[in-house]
């Protein structure tokens, strides 16, 4: 079971915000009213501990990839801070980000577009070493690539390393992406829907590999998914996102067995192939049609079957661990007036 007091924090986000301004056509320059604001990430805080898997789940458009890019310092936050190994790196420039860039790696959803088709597998996996270990010899780099390929079970190593991405299967390409992330021995891997483009038949193999790598090299993951069925297999903690906000957060088992937020309950209902042993508690929560977001109050107001008058005010994320049936369950946060 999770016990955060014994775990070492590795990466922390505090009150991250990223809003995008979307202009609607050529009139937007003259009429500010035709510019709309998308609150992609709206005041999100999270703490990732060493060796832990933090699942970020939510429908498409909920802000998961923007959060990933913020955590990687690939985009600048409008507000908030990012703390890596107890150091505030929010304002650090490239020269001071070397250790961070090396220690926090990304695996993308689509290994078809994220791997350069003109490069051999050897060079794709070697590229991060070439960037970060300039002093190393070609031979040393090659040894590291071969080792990383063995670690992700891309074999026979020598033969496959001279191939191009097009000759590999989807699952093999995602193994290349993992080897590339792994080759610098990172502390954190941020995986943005790493199996969602893959054939169902190869998903389990990749998830199992990720889990093995985590245990072997003590890597922490931020695992992003729109599919709850994989999160219990790999995750320790989970945050459920809706319209840029975390609506519920806690240990994976706690949240999935005792979902409190109506949106989480609906997401669990929407799991197409729930594993009967881990998601027995699914219930039927009808969600009203439409994507309309209520601004200024609870984002979920228009879709929620339980909306009340007080939901026109913004709920805050409060600890509800006492609401669980299990005594002494770890922190369980929910942002909903039903639990006020
Ligand atoms: N660069 C951008 N410019 C404008 N809007 C963006 C940009 N990136 C993301 N968005 C918007 O932010 C919201 C969240 O997107 P995203 O983070 O990709 O969500 P998810 O990964 O959960 O599908 C969406 O409404 C999306 O259209
Ligand atoms: Mg995304």
Tell me what you see in this structure.
With 340 residues, the chain is of the alpha/beta class. The chain has two domains: 4-242, P-loop containing nucleotide triphosphate hydrolases (Rossmann fold), CATH 3.40.50; 256-332, no CATH class. Helices cover 29% and strands 22% of the residues. The protein has eleven helices and twelve strands. The chain has helices at residues 64-71, 98-103, 111-114, 121-132, 138-151, 157-161, 170-182, 200-217, 231-234, 252-257, 262-270; strands at residues 9-23, 35-49, 53-57, 79-84, 87-88, 104-107, 188-192, 220-225, 237-242, 245-251, 318-319, 332-334. The strands form two sheets. Strands 6-7-8-3-9-10-12-11 form an eight-stranded mixed β-sheet, with helices on both faces. Strand 9 (237-242) and strand 10 (245-251) form a beta hairpin. Mean pLDDT is 88; it is low at 272-284. The chain binds adenosine-5'-diphosphate and magnesium ion.
